[in-house]
Structure formats: structure tokens, C-alpha cells
Amino acid sequence: MKKIVSLLFGICFFISPLLAQQTSDVAGSYFLEGVKETTSGFQLKPNYTFTFFFTYGGLDRYGSGRWVQEKNTIVFNSRGKPARDFKLLSARRVNDNFVTIKFTDNNPGIIRGIECILYTARGRQKLFTGDDGMVKFPKNQVDSIQVFSPLFPDHPFTYIVTNKIQNNFEFAFEKWIAEVFFEDFTLLLTNNMLVGQHPLLNGRQFRYVKDK
């Protein structure tokens, strides 16, 4: 019995450093290459957690979670994405000839250019917010409002209007709007690089090179 215990201890003694070495080889910072004016990448930590970073112009995005290695593939998962990325500040009836949608934030740069799609009994209309974060549609009975922000394309939002007499709506971003959420996001590990898609950029073949 003592020989078996000693043998098992010996196996664990040799395997544990090997697994630690494999994790240590994978862990590190991987930076996106070949995309102008953009800084982005992943930091893989030895404890199987990761952070994601993305900077373009004055916009900073971030994410975090856990990673696992499945053969030559790294799989990323984060906490669950909240159900809504915008919060309704007010919805009321205003005695004018418009349906007004307004966005409020301390950063004026993120309320500009938001795509607003209005669904009514007469069909679908689309406008983009100006510098004031506002759009005005001709007055109509509103069924729903869809919102797409160019800075946060991974956070679309739909608001269902239950009170049909309302024609003035004000929204704000939730505090997690800049967070990027991962669900079984995969990258191929090869030659000290991660290769595959980017969570925010269009395309299928991006390279993240490990920092030496």
C-alpha cells in the first residue's frame, strides 16, 4: 500500500510542474496587430482569468472572465450579459407634433450618431441622433423603439412602448455599456499568437501576438 501511495505521489510531483509550465507558457499579454489606430488584446493570467482591452480614438472598452485551453484553442467566457444596456429615464406624453427620443450622458461623444428605429402602425422609420443626442420623428403611435450605438454595436437595445399615448422618451446608458461580454469566444493558439475573430471588429482573421 505504501508503494502505491509513493508511486501516486511521485506521479503528481512530476505532473504538477508540467501542467504549471504549460499554463505559464500560454499565459501572457497578446496584442492585436495590423489594425490602424487601434490598441487591443488579451491578458491571460496563470490562474485562468483574463482581461480584454480595446482603445480606438477616445473610446475605451474592457472585459474580463475566465479562459480554458482545449487542445490548441483558447475559450473565453465572462459573466452573464445584463438584459438591458440602456435605462429609461422618462416616458411621457408631450403636446406637440413629434415623437422625441433623447439620450443623456456626461460624455457628449457617445450620444452622437445613435441609430434609432421607430416601429409604428404605419411602418418603420430611422433617424440618427445629432450632437444633442436627440431625434424627432413625425408624431405617431409608437409600438417599439430599437437603438444601435456605433460605439457599442454589441449592445443593441429594444424598448417596447406599453402606453401608446407617450411620445417623448429619454434614455441613459447603463454603467456596464463599455463592458464586452464573452460566451464561448474562441481563438486558435499557434506560434505564440492567438488567431481568429475580434469581439468588436468585423472580420474573421485577426492576429494577437504574444508580448515577449
Written account of the structure:
The protein has 212 residues and is mainly β. It has one helix at residues 2-26; strands at residues 28-33, 38-44, 49-56, 59-70, 73-77, 86-92, 98-104, 115-120, 123-128, 134-138, 142-148, 157-160, 168-173, 185-190, 193-196, 206-210. The protein has an 8-stranded antiparallel beta barrel. β2 and β3 (49-56) form a beta hairpin. The longest helix is centred in the first third of the chain and has 25 residues, at 2-26. It is elongated.
Radius of gyration equals 24 Å
Q: Label the structural class.
A: mainly beta
Largest sheet: 8 strands, antiparallel, barrel
Q: What are the segments in which pLDDT stays under 50 over at least 5 consecutive residues?
A: 1-21
Order of neighbouring strands in the sheet with most strands: 1-2-3-4-5-14-15-16
Number of helices: 1
Cα end-to-end separation: 47 Å
Mean pLDDT across all residues, rounded? 89
Name the overall outline. Answer: elongated
Into which percent range does the helicity of residues fall?
A: 10-25%
Number of strands: 16
- The string of secondary-structure elements, in order, is HEEEEEEEEEEEEEEEE
